[in-house]
Amino acid sequence: MVTKSIIGEEALALGAMMAGVRFVTGYPGTPSKGIFKALQEFSPTLPHPVYFHWATNEKVALELAVGATLAGMPSLVCVKSVGANVLLDALMTVNLTGVPSPLVIALGDDPSAWVSQNEQDSRWLALMSELPLLEPTRIEDAAEIMHAAFQLSAKLNLPVIVRFTRSFALTRKEILKASLQPVTFNHSNSLPSIASGGNAITLHARLQERLKFAEQWTNDFKFNRKKGDSAIVVMAVGPCVEKVGEVLNLLSRQSQRFDAAFLELATSFPLPRRWLLDNLAGKTVALVIEEGMPFVEMQLRALLQEARQPIAVRGKLTGDLPSVGELTLRQIGKALRNFLPMPSEIVNQLPDPQRQQGFTLKFCDGCPYPPFLDQLIRTAQGMGVKLVVSANPGCAIVAIGEPYQLVQIKHSMGGSVNLVASIAKFEHAPNRRYIALVGDSDFFHSAFNGIVNAVWWKAPMGLVILDNGGAAFTGGQPHPGSGFNASNEFTRPIQIERLLSALDIPVQVVSSRDNENLSAAIKWLLDYGDEIRALILREPCPFVPVWTQEGLKPLKTGGKIVGE
Length: 564
Ligand code: SF4
Prior knowledge:
Blueprint: E1 3-7, H1 8-19, E2 23-26, H2 33-42, E3 51-54, H3 58-70, E4 75-80, H4 81-97, E5 103-109, H5 124-129, E6 133-134, H6 139-156, E7 160-165, H7 166-170, E8 172-176, H8 200-219, E9 225-227, E10 232-237, H9 240-252, E11 261-265, E12 267-269, H10 273-280, E13 285-289, H11 295-306, E14 312-314, H12 329-337, H13 344-347, H14 369-383, E15 386-391, E16 407-410, H15 415-426, E17 432-439, H16 440-456, E18 461-467, H17 496-502, E19 507-510, H18 515-526, E20 532-538, E21 546-548, E22 551-553
Parallel strand pairs: 2-3, 2-4, 4-5, 5-7, 6-7, 10-11, 10-13, 13-14, 15-16, 15-17, 17-18, 18-20, 19-20
Antiparallel strand pairs: 1-8, 6-12, 9-11, 21-22
Bound molecules: iron/sulfur cluster.
C-alpha cells in the first residue's frame, strides 16, 4: 500500500490536478494560497501545461477563470474568506450564465480570524448565489471531493464552491495514493455568455433547475456517510469531521463509549434532503457540529419542520456550541457531553487552544518598515502635528500594536485611502495630518480606485505606498509591479509612481534605509497642505524574490513570515 504524508491544502490541490485543471488563479491569502503553491509544485510532472496567475484581486481572478472556461480550460480560483466578498459581484453573474468548462472556487475560511480581519462564514455566499457548496470532511478524502467538485461543475455547467478552514488546510495525515481520471466535459456552445435584464429571469429559472439536479447528486454522494445507529445523531459538517474524529479517539482512549449515530456531511448546499430524512427518521436529537455560523443547522431545522419530523436540532442556535471562534476539541467534547454521559474531568482534558485577542504581531528581522515608522513618528513630533493613520491588511498592521501604536484605522483591502480621504475632507484639522498607508499589492488590488476618487474629490492627505516588491505578508507572491509572474518569468514592472503621476499627484520615491533623504521626504509629505502627496517607500522585503545573477530568489530564506 503506497501512502503519502500530506496536508489538507495539498490534498485539495491533488484533487484539482487529477481532475485536469488547466488554469489556476486567485489572490494570495491564508488559507487557500497553499493550494496554488502545491499545484505549482505538482505541475512540472504533468504531460500538459497548467497556467498560473496571481490576479490583482479576487474579482479579476474569477472573471479570468470564467473567460478561461469559455476557452475550454478547466479552472480553479483560490481565495480566502474575505476575498470571496470581493469576487461576489462576478459570482452573482456567472451563476446565471454558467460555464462551459469546469470551474471550482476553493474558498478558505478562517474561524477565530488567525490571519484575517474577521471570522466570516463564507458559506452564505453559496445560498445567495444558489451555487453548490462542498465541504471536504477528511484529509484522506479531500482530493476525491475536490475532484468530485470538478465533475459536478462539468455536469451542471455551473461553478462549484469548495469550502475549507485554516485548520483543515494545515492538518497533516498519511493518505493512500489515488489516481483519478480527468473530468470530461462537452465544451460546445460556449458563447454567447450574457446575463442582462433581457434574460435574467430565464437564466435564474435555469439555475434553480440545475440546483434541483445538484440536490439529487448530493443524495447519492458517497462522502456523505453514516456510522452506527441510535436515537441520538451527531452530525459533523465538513472540516468538523476531522475534529469530531479526534475527540472520539481521545475519549475512547479513556474507555469512553458512545451510544450515538454519526453522520458526516460533505454537501452543505444544497442539502441532501432525501439522504438526511432517511437517516434521521425516528431519531430524537440531532447535534449539528459545524465551523462558523449555524448554516447547516438552520437549513436542517427548516427541512425537518417541512417534513413534520419531531427531531430536536441542537448546535449553535441552542447554545450547545459557541457561536464565535474556531471550535476546539474541548468545546466539541462538552457539546457531546450534553447528550452522551461522560465525566467532565475527561472532557476538560481535551485541547482548547484559543486565539488570544490583542495586537501582538512583530516585524520580522531585517524588515524595511521600522526605520520608516520611527522616522515618521519623529518628524510628526518635530512638526508639532498629530497623525491620523489608516492601514490595510498586510504587514503595515504590525504598526497597530506596541511599540508604534500608530495605525488607528484598519478595515479591509484598499480601504485606507477612502477612510482617510473622508476624515481629511470633513475634519481637516490644521494640527492633524491624515495619512493612508497602502501596501504595494494592496495598491493594485483596489486602493488605486480609491486614489483616483480621492483626487477627483480633492481630499487633502498623504499617501504612503509601502513598496516591498510583492505580497510580503502572505509569502511574497508577485503583483504587477514585482517584475515577475506566478510562473517566475520576467515581466515589465508596472511603476506605481508613473500611475500616480498620471493623476497629477506629486510623488517622491525613497528607501527606508536612506537616512539622508528619508526625513526630508517625510517632512515634504506631511506638508501636503490642500493637495494629495504620495511618498513611495521602496525597499524589498527580504522574503520577496528579486532578480539576482542566479535568477529569481529571496534575499532571505527560512524564518517565519509575519502573516503565516
Ligand atoms: S514579511 Fe517582509 S515586509 Fe512583512 S514584516 Fe516581514 S520583513 Fe517586513
